[in-house]
């Protein structure tokens, strides 16, 4: 079994944040679930950036469904 320190160099060189902006994405996965704290319905998104920059980076977003969000 490998130690986590084996990944230090890759982590150091990785881009950690995707800057705010407009990206072309593909929805890789979407699932209906609930929030842990309140049990409110939620949609979890896994999005892959296609461009114009940060290609193949993966974004994870959650959309909590409330009365206000469906209006």
Structure, described:
By secondary structure, the chain is mainly beta. The protein has one domain. It contains 1 helix and 3 strands, in the order αβββ. The protein has a 3-stranded antiparallel β-sheet, with no helix packed on it. A hairpin with a 6-residue loop joins β2 and β3. It is extended. The mean pLDDT is 89.
Helicity, in percent? Answer: under 10%
List the helices and strands in order.
HEEE
Number of discrete domains: 1
Structural class: mainly beta
Counting DSSP E segments of at least 2 residues, the number of strands comes to: 3
Q: Report the portion of residues in β strands.
A: 35-45%
Characterize the overall form: extended
- Strand order in the sheet with the most strands: 1-2-3
User: How would a textbook summarize the main sheet?
Assistant: 3 strands, antiparallel
The first-to-last residue Cα distance is 51 Å
Mean pLDDT across the residues is: 89
- The radius of gyration is 16 Å
Query: What's the helix count?
Result: 1
Q: Which regions have little confidence, pLDDT < 50, spanning 5+ residues? A: none
Protein name: DUF669 domain-containing protein
Pfam family, one: DUF669
Organism: marine sediment metagenome
């Amino acid at each position: 079994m490998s130690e986590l320190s084996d990944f230090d160099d890759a982590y150091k060189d990785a881009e950690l944040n995707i800057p705010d902006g407009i990206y072309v994405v593909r929805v890789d996965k979407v699932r209906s679930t609930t929030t842990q704290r309140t049990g409110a319905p939620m949609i979890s998104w896994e999005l892959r950036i296609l461009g114009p920059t940060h290609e193949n980076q993966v974004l994870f977003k959650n959309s909590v469904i409330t009365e206000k969000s469906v209006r």
